[in-house]
Specification:
single chain, mainly beta, five-stranded antiparallel sheet, 5 helices, 38 strands, 5% helix, 44% strand
Amino acid sequence: MKRKYNYFLLWWLHFFLFPVFGQDVQLYQQFNGRFDFTFIGNTLNTQENLGILNSPCIINTFSSAQLDLQPDDTLEKAYLYWAGSGSGDFNVKLNDIDIVPDRTFNLTQSSSGLIFFSAFKDVTEQVLNTGNGDYTLSELDLTAIIPSYCNNATNFAGWAIIIIYGNNDLPINQLNVYDGLDYIGGGNLSLNFSLDSLNVIDNQGANIGFIAWEGDSNLAVNETLLINGNLLSNPPLNPANNAFNGTNSITGSNNLFNMDLDIYEIQNFIQPGDQTAEIALTSGQDFVMINAVVTKLNSQLPDAAISIDNFYLECDSREITVDYTVYNLESTNPLPANTPIAIYANGVLIETTATIDVIEVNGSESNTITLSIPNEISNTFELTFSVDDVGDGTGIVNEINENNNLDVETVSLLFSPEFNVLEPIYSCNEGFGVGTFDLTSIENSLLVDFSNNISFHLTLSDAELNLNPIINLNNYQTNTGTILYIRIENESCFSITPLELITKNCPPTVYNFISANEDSFNDFFFIDGLRDIFLNFEIEIYNRWGHLVWKGNQNTEDWRGEVTEEVKWNNDISVDGTYFYLLFLNDPDYPKPLQGFLYITR
């Protein structure tokens, strides 16, 4: 059982706490395609409200109406509205299924302070499952509050469903559903509002429908309904001076007490190119609430939209390749071939192209284009694709929506990392041109951006493919003239630079003491860094009197104190004492011989 409330107290509290005087009628939903609309619904009033003449003042809690779509009609949407006097009953049933509103509306009549409500529910799924037949709205229980409205002759309740349906035999139309809750009469002598988002291409077959509450058939004091200044009427059901009079122009009923479901032809009152329609209502007495308005216009138009699907960048190139798609969704007509496309970088036009084929309704066309980004465009920029744009922001195709033709992506061009050119690095020749190199400090002189990574490779191919990096960088041993390839990487690109490794003949170190006693310590004249390095060296040993006692080179053994020249004594062995040497390196870097003394003992 539904809980009963003190509705009189509730609406007075609502008036003082929430003084809402109405809600503007605005666009709720738009449909484009082979669509039309109709209404079903019914009043809960048992008779027209007549104020003090109402006796008894009662109201039903349920009523029924019938849906009868044709076999080829396909339901697209079903929107339920219910309304009445008071602050609202928002728990009702439709064919015994509980209904809770998606949205609610309310207003306060300025002259009386009386409150009225409306509620909305999308019942598409239920109507799809039920199909044609009887629909009963029940448990809309306003019995407790209705007596407070009878003397004012504003006691009412009712319900309606807007039915949007499709049929392949229909022309392509644009249907707009507007809703809110606003009123005339009851101290408000006129009501004006605009129906926007229209797109009038052909006014043939144009209609407008109203869901209105609380109109009276016996009150016709300065009551008018106009569109774009033209008086609407549908005689005899809806005379020009009494549009809201408890009628249903779909069924032909004039007993829809205190509610109206009426559809008017308006093809003579709108013109191709119109994007808005002005609705004006007047009433010198009758209190009428407008809850929903539906327009049907022949609107066979495309609706071009575009998306940047992918873009592809190459390092050190200002060319980018872009995949894009042009769509013709939410449209009612094909998009013609050769619809222009303009492409901008940071707002600067850089390229134009066009669609190739006709794009059917709900169709698309994908293409690829390569763009050259001018040097004056920064490396990071906004790339904009604009369809139906000849290159200056203007189009050549009339569309349903002219504000969805752009797609924008931020693009950052890719560049290989910068680096400093390296001079060859040197190491001492350790023999036959082999040297040991420390590569660990190379990055300090190579890198410009120290967030980059480097690796060393033996071949250019390995560096390009990032294969076989050199692991031992501290003591890398190689022959003179070796060229390594250094790969420098950032997040996206890499650079490669060569590094030449050169060994040089460093000055030899002379150990000038000989103890020629074959004890394995200092048994011969040792010069470190000489053999296998200075391959053409010659060495001469002289005694203290300047006589040559020994000569040697790369092919002789080291001197052990023997005398091989003409000065001989002591069984061809030199005596203990001081000797002098001349070391001819025969190297361009050392044109003069190295000389010094050495001491020999036994």
